[in-house]
Write a structure and sequence with these properties.
By secondary structure, the chain is mainly β. It has two domains: about 210 residues, no CATH class; about 80 residues, Immunoglobulin-like, CATH 2.60.40. About 5% of the residues lie in helices and about 30% in strands. The protein has one helix and 22 strands. The strands form six sheets. It has a five-stranded antiparallel beta sheet with strand order 1-11-6-14-2, with no helix packed on it. Strands 3-5-12-7-8 form a five-stranded antiparallel beta sheet, with no helix packed on it. The protein has a four-stranded antiparallel beta sheet with strand order 15-16-17-20, with no helix packed on it. Strand 15 and strand 16 form a beta hairpin. The chain is elongated and about 70 Å long. The N terminus is likely disordered.
Length: about 325
């Protein structure tokens, strides 16, 4: 038994050592890289909506300004075409797509930053959600040395990091494979409606640092006390995407059709008194009406393309279901 215990401890130490010294894919252009150029035929779509919450230029200085370069619209569309939006320390962006991302073979989407070379790397965590409420993070790894702070324009070795956005230079996307995230009852990997990009605060001071999946501090250029501080989000390109619409939903007498729809959505309910609300990905009610008949129509003309939630309230009960506006 003693020998078995020693063997298990040795095995654990070896695994820990392997993780600490793991070498991941190198910069774009080098043999073994996983970088994907923006013009690659693997991309079938790009994010079409984005909401940004800015972070401070210097999280250690509450009186500092917030990052202010770009706006949320610049993170939509194809990479390298319309600029970037800077997130600042710990800032985040939530992106939406015309159709959900799905889990296929290999990487499913890629995140683009605007690094001017393969070594000045501003990093970010990436999370996904299939309902806009519950988010799940890719297991990020950073084996970069943390004994000395990477200064504001310091360099980072791409082979030391994995599952962090910003690993590659401008116009080369960092790929993410949904299979890397553990299965969870609240995550449908075949129906990813949101991608969240969260700036890594690269400070190695305990009170400000951010950590990877193994609780290692992540060291990247800091402080970045200027308007373009933090992660500079360029785009998110989709590799695997749902190509068919949502099936017609029948849930205890509730039917909505057609789904997806470009102009009108019909709601059919056995009850003749119900209240209908349409909610966007930011959890905002964008349409609502009270109905006195078993079937009603909802005009979708004023809505932008994307995924919405239909909330129906009747006799004190609520039902929610998703639909797609084309």
């Amino acid at each position: 038994m003693k020998q078995l215990f020693i063997a298990l401890v040795f095995f654990g130490l070896c695994c820990s050592s392997l993780n600490l010294n793991a070498q991941f894919a190198p910069p774009a252009g080098q043999v073994g890289t996983t970088a994907i150029f923006k013009d690659s035929s693997v991309f079938v779509a790009w994010a079409n909506q984005c909401k940004v919450i800015r972070g401070l230029q210097d999280i250690s200085m509450p009186s500092s300004d917030y990052a202010d370069v770009g706006d949320s619209s610049l993170a939509t569309g194809m990479a390298g075409t319309n600029g970037v939006v800077s997130l600042g320390d710990g800032g985040e962006a939530v992106l939406q797509f015309n159709m959900p991302i799905s889990d296929g073979v290999g990487p499913d989407f890629a995140v683009f930053e605007n690094s001017f070379d393969g070594q000045f790397l501003e990093l970010a965590f990436v999370e996904v959600s299939s309902d806009g409420v519950n988010y799940f993070r890719f297991p990020a790894v950073s084996n970069t040395d943390t004994t000395t702070q990477t200064w504001s324009f310091g360099l980072t070795d791409a082979t030391k990091i994995n599952n962090l956005a910003g690993k590659y230079k401008a116009e080369y996307g960092t790929p993410f494979d949904l299979a890397d995230i553990s299965d969870h009852i609240l995550l449908d990997k075949q129906w990813i409606t949101h991608v969240k990009v969260i700036d890594v605060v690269g400070c190695i001071q305990n009170q400000y640092c951010t950590r990877d999946a193994y609780n290692h501090k992540i060291n990247d250029p800091w402080p970045t006390v200027f308007g373009s501080g933090g992660f500079d989000l360029d785009a998110v390109g989709v590799i695997h995407q749902q190509t068919v619409g949502v099936k017609e939903l029948n849930l205890e007498g509730v039917t909505i059709y057609p789904n997806p729809s470009a102009d009108v959505l019909y709601v059919n309910l056995s009850s003749i008194n119900y209240f209908v609300e349409v909610i966007n990905v930011m959890d905002e009610v964008v349409l609502k009406s009270e109905n006195k008949s078993a079937t009603t129509s909802i005009s979708l003309y004023e809505l932008t393309q994307g995924i919405y939630t239909l909330r129906i309230t009747s006799n004190g009960k609520q039902k929610q279901m998703k639909f797609v506006k084309l």
